[in-house]
Design brief:
This protein has about 110 residues and is mainly α. It is built from four helices and no strands.
């Protein structure tokens, strides 16, 4: 009843705040490829947490985050080796942060 209605409202407000903050951070990123990475790793985080089947939500979050961090690190390592690209630690952080945003989004809409 009443508690469930308040919870749904709180969830909608949290989702709105999430999207506003996402747009703000997206606007702060000047390089187009990094903006694309924001979406890519957000989607990866969303899908990774959605694929977890453990009963422990903390384990699901940690495994999903570790997966996103590993993929982002490997991606930047490959870019470091390519002569026309460069990988940086700040890009790994951006990738991981985007993955966290995707995980949070999943938890908000679940």
């Amino acid at each position: 009843g009443e508690i469930r209605r308040h919870f749904r409202l709180l969830r909608k407000v949290a989702l709105l705040i999430f999207f506003i903050l996402s747009l703000y951070f997206l606007y702060q990123i000047k390089i187009l490829a990094e903006r694309v990475h924001l979406f890519e790793y957000g989607i990866l985080g969303y899908l990774a947490i959605g694929d977890q089947r453990h009963k422990n939500i903390i384990a699901n979050i940690l495994i999903s985050f570790a997966f996103v961090l590993a993929v982002g690190s490997i991606d930047e390592l490959f870019q470091w080796w390519l002569p026309s690209r460069f990988g940086t630690a700040s890009d790994v952080i951006l990738n991981a942060t985007s993955g966290i945003a995707g995980i949070i989004l999943f938890l908000l809409v679940k």
